[in-house]
Design a protein that fits this description.
Blueprint: H1 6-22, E1 27-29, E2 53-57, H2 67-82, E3 85-89, H3 97-106, E4 111-114, H4 120-129, E5 134-138, E6 148-153, H5 157-169, E7 174-179, H6 184-200, E8 205-210, H7 217-229, E9 234-238, H8 241-251, E10 258-263, E11 274-280, H9 282-294, E12 302-305, E13 312-314, H10 323-338
Parallel strand pairs: 2-3, 2-4, 4-5, 5-6, 6-12, 7-8, 7-9, 9-10, 10-11
Antiparallel strand pairs: 1-3, 11-13
Helix pairs in contact: 1-8, 2-9, 5-6, 5-10, 7-8
């Protein structure tokens, strides 16, 4: 029997709090009287008079503590900033995407986000039916030049930084990756992560395990625990709620294994176990697109987001990290940011 201790309690608390705040299914959220729009917005640059409604589609629950929670927070941020009406639909399966998109467009929503690459192809089709609605897929790679755009996180930057970090942290030479679903984006990051570890430590072994679920905490625990029992002492995870289980397994290892987060910042869940997290900020992307839309400058193309423009970065560090290792990783991050380090991606492209 798996014993989920403090971390699971924290995770469930986050789930309950978020659920109480946001409810379930499709909801509409409006700013409270206290939530005034950002004072830095220049009214003359914002689209006037027309009531703006913005929506978000998520393939998983918004209280997953990771990818979808971040996107939901981004949606709430733009609602608060501009005073726009906001709505979301969570747990959207592929077969329902067209209907949910059409429903929002038919009901006067001006801007609709899809939190994943899987929304891109549907938005390209439905965008033709609803030219007055702007559609944007996060991690998509399509745009129609009119009302459909997308943004993708530069896929190799954080894989390189986390791979370097894992190589510096490991003592056993055994490193692990626990993922939820083997999507094209995650598979690409894993290639970079593995190659970076082994290029720095030629004798290192990198284990990879996918649980097949974004929400199953137990599967994350089981996958990580199996790796720890085989001698793995550093695990990087991309699994949303699954990461909670992986972190729990690391906590129960009595210090034998550390965790590196990815996409969201997981340090707050276990400040001593989570060495650092490579953050892909969906709130940054959502707010950037909303700012463009508000000024009448929506970009109906595929746009890259990364370290240079502040969309990706290394998050909160554990206090006991070797200062030399932290300095090295932050130095590499800064070099990417200022353009003095240009990574050769040819070896990582499939």
């Amino acid at each position: 029997m798996i014993k989920f201790k403090r971390l699971l309690a924290i995770f469930l608390f986050v789930v309950m709090v978020t659920a109480c705040l946001a409810g379930c299914g499709q909801q509409t959220a409006s700013p409270t009287d206290e939530e005034s729009p950002n004072e830095n917005v220049e009214p003359e640059n914002v689209q006037p008079e027309k009531e703006i409604k913005v929506a978000l589609l998520c393939s998983g629950p918004i209280n997953d503590g990771g990818w979808n929670t971040d996107a939901y927070n981004g949606l709430m941020n733009v609602g608060k900033k501009y005073g726009w009406e906001t709505a979301y639909t969570e747990n959207v399966i592929a077969a329902d995407i067209p209907n949910v998109l059409r429903n929002y467009a038919s009901n006067g929503f001006s801007l609709v986000f899809g939190n994943g690459y899987e929304y891109a192809e549907y938005m390209m089709e439905i965008g033709e039916e609803f030219p007055e609605t702007c559609f944007f897929s996060i991690c998509g790679v399509d745009g129609n030049g009119k009302n459909v755009g997308s943004g993708t996180f530069i896929w190799y930057e954080l894989g390189y930084l986390t791979g370097t970090l894992a190589a510096r942290i490991t003592e056993s030479g055994k490193v692990g990756f626990v993922g939820a679903m083997e999507t094209p984006g995650i598979a690409a990051e894993v290639r970079v992560f593995k190659d970076t570890v082994t290029s720095l430590l030629p004798e290192a072994n990198v284990s990879v395990s996918y649980t097949g679920s974004w929400t199953d905490v137990a599967k994350g625990y089981e996958a990580a625990n199996a790796m720890i029992n085989s001698g793995v002492d550093v695990i990087m995870g991309i699994g949303d709620a699954c990461d909670a289980g992986a972190i729990q397994a690391c906590e129960e290892s009595n210090g034998r294994c550390k965790f590196i987060g990815f996409a969201s910042d997981f340090n707050h869940l276990s400040p001593e176990i989570v060495i650092c997290s490579a953050v892909q900020s969906t709130p940054f992307m959502i707010e950037a697109v909303a700012d463009q839309f508000a000024k009448g400058e929506f970009v109906p193309e595929a746009v890259d987001y990364g370290i240079m423009n502040g969309a990706s970065y290394m998050g909160v560090w554990a206090e006991d990290v070797d200062p030399a290792i932290k300095e090295e990783i932050l130095g590499l991050e800064e070099a990417i940011r200022n353009g003095t380090l240009v990574l050769d991606i040819s070896k990582w492209e499939s």
